[in-house]
């Protein structure tokens, strides 16, 4: 994966978003390498979720450019970005509670195959879609729960299903917003292992408050403060950065 590893998966230049007189995102520049987990951290109100919304196309930027493997994404709607391989998970769940795990994954597979929702009920005999859904279920560790109604899943299993729905969209870059939120230690460990394994296939941009998870996962980190990039570097560089300690991490978290 050497040559791909060196490629820039996501390039962001001068990204801005204002809400009235408040600058939510201020001239953000980022370069995220292919095959990396790149964590975005910062205090509450730093603009992390806004940044993911701008990258995914859920929010329109006031200025700036976004490139996915050199292909311009700015000016494109969210669905066009998904089709190009820039996919977001976790901010708003897209799980259908009344459907089973397998049925949910089949819907996601069919979307990727550019089929209409009306095809869902006819798809019971669609072996290709079912097989693809089973492959994703195994990928996210839900193969034993494929026939369980989604509303009955544990919190951790539901979060893994959300990852599966995103994977079914065929992402090249996966934007993950607080994947460990509300999880216990064991569930967090399972999610960390899953995200780590995703690097074999795609690039992950991770917003996460659990700093233990961030330090375990991240190849590179960017610190946002008041909508602007304070620092970008390796885990070691960020932990040793005096400005970052003062603005966010605190001495106790960097020992």
UniProtKB/TrEMBL annotation:
A GO term for molecular function: ATP hydrolysis activity
Domain of life, source organism: Bacteria
Cleavable signal peptide: none
Annotated InterPro entries: AAA+_ATPase, ABC_AA/LPS_Transport, ABC_transporter-like_ATP-bd, BCA_ABC_TP_C, P-loop_NTPase
Gene Ontology CC terms, in alphabetical order: plasma membrane
Keywords: ATP-binding, Cell membrane, Membrane, Nucleotide-binding, Transport
Record's keyword annotation contains Cell membrane: yes
Keyword Amino-acid biosynthesis listed: no
Pfam families: ABC_tran, BCA_ABC_TP_C
Protein's name according to its UniProt entry: ABC transporter ATP-binding protein
Domain (ABC transporter): residue spans on this chain: 10-251
Gene3D superfamilies for this protein: P-loop containing nucleotide triphosphate hydrolases (3.40.50.300)
Organism: Herbaspirillum aquaticum
